[in-house]
Write a structure and sequence with these properties.
Layout: H1 2-59, H2 62-72, H3 77-104, H4 106-114, H5 120-145, H6 149-174, H7 179-204, H8 208-213, H9 219-253, H10 256-269, H11 274-293, H12 299-330, H13 340-365, H14 369-427
Helix pairs in contact: 1-3, 1-5, 1-6, 1-9, 1-10, 1-11, 2-3, 2-5, 2-9, 2-11, 3-5, 4-5, 5-6, 5-7, 6-7, 9-10, 9-14, 10-13, 11-12, 11-13, 12-13, 13-14
Main location: membrane
Keywords: Cell membrane, Membrane, Transmembrane, Transmembrane helix
Organism: Persephonella marina (strain DSM 14350 / EX-H1)
């Protein structure tokens, strides 16, 4: 009972900061929509989506590996310090290589992402901010593993949007150049990383001398980390693809106008999973500890309790979107009401997805990442195929239908995996 109270307290803390981050994120999107129009919202959406998708390659799955290993060795300060610096070193190398590729290919990328060569400077900015965004991800996952819930939630949900909004408000007074949208995101990523690192140094004591001992590359250790992290990389990549590939594909088939509308709709629909996400963030270290101590009998009661807490809240949010969705979209401008039908369908899909989160966290923290990878492969392939078929004909409505069906496939396969991989082995 004590564990459940602790989880609930930390979940409420995480949820509160996620709500704050969500409000600031919407204020940022609202600000961009009002001053730069639906096309500006499209630039914002594409930039953030590209950062998220590419960051998976930059992290190479090491963030989930870091979370599991640090959570399981939280009391061994020297060891977690060693793991931290090791992951920082390798992710910096991976992300720098990807950043260089973006710089070299900045001209075609500006056309592919933003439809115009004049946004080549935005691609340059994005390539710089990308490195710091990856390192920021490592830092807040490190804080999450050690149960620094407040700091983790701030840097994961709040800081990037907050600093971006403040900077963009300043830049817009100078000139309404769309490049300022990406510039704000880039500077925000840099400042957020620096602040998160200073907090880690202050609160946890990260031994800097270890870093100097890691300056030389160990190919053997790199191979070992890649071997452990690759399943996490693929699973995380596919999970993000499930949420954001439709935005990228709309930008490819349609204009920034429709990309902007869909980005806003997708962001709103994700509110439904907030209670589940907040709970999962706290349950992840708990599941890692259960796996290490082999206390599998505790799993069913935790799952039942987690669903009892989160699902009614998720359903309440879904109903409110169905009833008031058109009024919510009107806040962003009249053009955005075109996305009401997509909002209803996407929100229903996210409600289905909210059941998946706890099971996915359990599988990843219980060394079943390869099983979850197979699930994500099938679900993501379904999503991409349906997007290719439906977006050209039905625009953003087609994208939302594709997401709903793929989330349903994801849920059914996840339930099956839990029964075969966790439940049966617990009963043996």
């Amino acid at each position: 009972m004590t564990d459940k109270i602790e989880i609930l307290k930390k979940s409420l803390s995480s949820l509160s900061l996620k709500i704050v981050g969500l409000i600031i994120g919407f204020l940022l999107t609202l600000y961009v929509s009002r001053y730069y129009g639906a096309s500006g919202a499209g630039i914002l959406g594409i930039s953030l989506t590209v950062l998220q998708l590419l960051s998976i390659l930059g992290k190479f799955g090491s963030d989930t590996f870091l979370l599991r290993e640090v959570a399981a060795n939280a009391e061994k300060k020297y060891k977690i310090s060693f793991i931290y610096w090791e992951i920082i070193k390798y992710t910096f190398i991976f992300s720098s290589i990807l950043s260089l590729i973006m710089l070299v290919a900045s001209k075609p990328l500006s056309v592919l992402l933003y439809d115009r060569e004049e946004y080549i400077f935005s691609v340059f900015l994005l390539s710089i901010g990308f490195i710091f965004y990856v390192l920021l991800n490592i830092n807040f996952n490190f804080l999450k593993a050690l149960r620094y819930t407040g700091y983790y939630s701030f840097f994961h949900f709040v800081s990037l949007f907050l600093i971006s909004l403040l900077l963009l408000a300043i830049f817009t007074n100078l000139d309404r150049n769309p490049n300022f949208i990406v510039l704000s995101i880039t500077i925000s990523a840099i400042l957020s990383y620096i602040l998160s690192f200073l907090i880690i140094k202050k609160e946890i004591y990260i031994n800097s001398r270890i870093f100097s001992s890691l300056c030389s590359l160990s190919l053997k250790r790199l191979k070992q980390i890649i071997q452990y992290s690759l399943p996490f990389l693929l699973a995380s990549s596919l999970m993000l693809i499930m949420n954001w590939i439709d935005t990228i594909m709309i930008s490819f088939f349609k204009s920034n106008f429709y990309t902007g509308i869909y980005y806003v709709v997708a962001k709103i629909s994700m509110i439904i999973t907030m209670p589940s996400v907040a709970l999962n963030n706290i349950l992840a270290p708990k599941f890692a500890k259960i796996e290490k101590e082999k206390k599998y009998k505790d799993i069913p009661s935790i799952l039942k309790w987690a669903f009892k807490i989160s699902i009614p809240l998720n359903f309440l949010i879904l109903i409110s979107f169905i009833i008031f969705g058109d009024k919510i979209l009107m806040l962003f401008g009249k053009d955005f009401t075109l996305g009401y039908s997509s909002l209803v369908i996407l929100s229903s899909g996210q409600f289905v997805n909210s059941f998946v989160g706890v099971i996915a966290t359990l599988l990843l923290m219980s060394h079943r990442e390869k099983v979850f990878l197979k699930i994500m492969l099938v679900s993501s392939a379904t999503n991409i195929l349906l997007n290719l078929i439906l977006i050209p004909e039905y625009n953003i409505l087609g994208a939302s239908i594709a997401s709903f069906i793929s989330f349903l496939v994801l849920l059914l396969l996840s339930i099956k995996a839990y029964k075969t991989e966790i439940k049966q082995k617990r009963e043996v």
